[in-house]
Amino acid sequence: MELLVNQVGHWQAARWAAPAAGSDVPRAALVHRLVQEVADLAAGAEGQPRREVPRLDNDLALPDQLRVVAADLAAARPASAAVVRAAAEVTATRQAL
């Protein structure tokens, strides 16, 4: 996830608003979807209910949100299947950006 955070951490608002490759979905929406997916994996690993990750007004907060949910996932010591799924989601998101 650190590669993705490094890839997008310096982006300004216009770059976040631009559509992801080959779609009309804004990059910010795609990364927020990833944040939610990782948060869901962390909740599952902790045996907690899923909670909606707020979609903040400022897209520049997305890298920080990703860092937080990634740390939550790591702290939960998830099963290997959850780690593999998180890695696949990150890879797919990086490729789509």
Short description:
The protein has 97 residues and is mostly helical. Helices cover 65% and strands 0% of the residues.
Describe the structure.
With 97 residues, the protein is mostly helical. It has one domain. Helices cover 65% and strands 0% of the residues. The chain contains five helices and no strands. The protein has helices at residues 2-8, 13-17, 27-46, 62-75, 80-96. α1 runs antiparallel to α4, α3 runs parallel beside α4 and α3 runs antiparallel to α5 (80-96). The protein is globular and about 35 Å long.
- Mean of pLDDT: 95
**Parts with pLDDT < 50 across at least 5 consecutive residues:** none
| Share in β-strands | under 5%
Assign a percent range to the helix content: 55-70%
| SSE topology string | HHHHH
Q: Give a count of the beta strands, DSSP E runs of length 2 or more.
A: 0
Distance between the termini: 14 Å
- Radius of gyration from CA coordinates: 13 Å
- Given the structure, what is the number of helices? 5
Number of domains: 1
Question: What structural class do helix, strand and pairing data support?
Answer: mainly alpha
Q: Could you say which overall geometry the principal axes of the C-alpha atoms support? A: globular
**Major sheet: size, sense and barrel closure?**
none
Quick tags:
single chain, 97 residues, mainly alpha, 5 helices, 0% strand, globular
